[in-house]
Amino acid sequence: MVAAGAASVALAALALGTSAPAHAGATGSTPIGTFDYDLRGAGVRVPTGCFLTHTIKGSGRRITAQFAGVDCAGLAATFSRFCNWRIDFAYADTDNRTYRTSRGATHPECKGDPLREVRPQTLPRYGKACAKFHVNGRLRAVQCHYITR
Q1: Residue 23: predicted pLDDT
Q2: If DSSP states are collapsed to H, E and C, what string results for 83-94?
Q3: pTM for this model (two decimals)
Q4: Bridge partners of residue 85, in order along the sequence
Q5: What average pLDDT does range 14-19 have in this prediction?
């Protein structure tokens, strides 16, 4: 999945003198900028300090685990609540054409740490897998991982 992760697994296998299937994984975070939104007539402000974190594990096109969630630090951890949120997973080929989107449920409740996980799967193509965080119907952050041979 991630060239660096696969390379370290391959080097470890060579060092041990055995052959093992390459397994890789990656975790990345993208900052969510400050934004305001309306919740039933009341203004809600999300301060700086929150991140969309996306983790993917597997080998080649086989994804054994994938999840994404929001983590906040500092004052943002105390004051950030996300209402009407959802997390989508989108998959694109090497030409950057999206061929599948797994749309998450919209959660009307307010939550400080939204999280979504999807079941294991095998992708039909190499390319990238992205997590997309929406609040109140608007895209707020995207975090992607490239899936390579």
Answers
A1: 58
A2: CCEEEEEEEEEC
A3: 0.81
A4: 107, 135
A5: 36
pLDDT in tens, 85-99: 999 999 999 999 999
**Domains of the chain listed by start with CATH number:** 3-147 (2.60.40)
Distance CA 61, CA 18 (A): 23
Which whole number is the average pLDDT over 25-37?
A: 92
- The alpha-helical segments, DSSP class H, found in the chain are 3-16, 75-79
Gyration radius from the chain CA atoms: 17
